[in-house]
Design goal:
The protein has 221 residues and is an alpha/beta fold. The protein folds into two domains: 145 residues, Rossmann fold (3-Layer(aba) Sandwich); 65 residues, Putative phosphatase, domain 2 (DNA polymerase, domain 1), CATH 1.10.150. 46% of the residues lie in helices and 16% in strands. The protein contains ten helices and eight strands. The strands form two sheets. A six-stranded parallel β-sheet has the order 5-4-1-6-7-8, with helices on both faces. Strand 7, helix 9 and strand 8 form a beta-alpha-beta unit.
Length: 221
């Protein structure tokens, strides 16, 4: 294998966005008169499509869950989006990959509008050739759909040279469905048990280790 393109998830992979997401979920639940669950359930909102997670946790219909996302965004768009931080080692990792000549794309289930704002605000947009995410309407939230969107937009057809990097099972399953390699990271919001169950092609404990794996797969050791 010789990697030429790397897709990155955003939440839990590039940034530690848990505080902002969980605070936004709390806001949405309280405003709609629903019980606020404990920390582990709130953490489960980091990664998967929001409307699907609201459905699972609240036992509501898809239509109701999309309305919950609208309420969530009242807080998230003003405050939650900035209750966030870059993981240590992310910028050096992106610099190394960029220097090696690889294409760097983003494939996130977060709304593309918000992903772009975060990338600009935290200073890593310059390393990405393309930032792909969900539509504000709630469509294109499945990770496979976003991967397909990013690859199609960049006219990348050689999937033997593509790798998806993410911290949740959705990233690994999306990569498998798209026919590309996967690298699971253990510093985000997915547990080791979740990652091992997903069976990614590679596992990394840190951004530094992820960079080493990617560069080796690119033939740039």
């Amino acid at each position: 294998m010789k990697i030429h393109t790397v897709l990155f998830d955003l939440d839990g992979t590039i940034t530690d966005s848990g505080q902002g997401i969980m605070n936004s979920v709390r806001y949405a639940l309280r405003k709609t008169g629903k019980d606020v669950p404990g920390g582990e359930v709130l953490r489960s909102f980091v990664g998967p499509p929001l409307h699907e997670q609201f459905q699972r946790v609240c036992g509501i219909t898809e239509e109701e869950s999309l309305k919950m996302v609208d309420v969530y965004r009242e807080y998230y768009s003003e405050q939650g989006i900035f209750e966030n931080r870059l993981y240590d080692g992310i910028i050096p990792m992106l610099q190394q990959i960029k220097k090696a000549g690889l294409h760097i794309l983003m494939a996130t289930s977060k709304a593309e509008k918000y992903a772009g704002i975060i990338a600009d605000h935290y200073g890593f947009a310059q390393y990405f050739d393309f930032i792909g995410g969900a539509l504000m309407s709630g469509k294109r939230t499945d990770k496979w759909e976003v991967i397909e969107y990013a690859l199609t937009s960049m006219k990348i057809t050689d999937r033997e040279g593509v790798m998806m990097v993410g911290d949740r099972i959705y990233d690994i399953e999306g990569a498998r469905k798209a026919g590309i390699y996967s690298l699971g990271v253990l510093y985000g919001y997915g547990s080791r048990e979740e990652m091992e169950k997903a069976s990614p092609d590679f596992l990394a404990q840190t951004p530094e280790e992820a960079a080493d794996i990617i560069l080796k797969c690119a033939g740039d050791e």
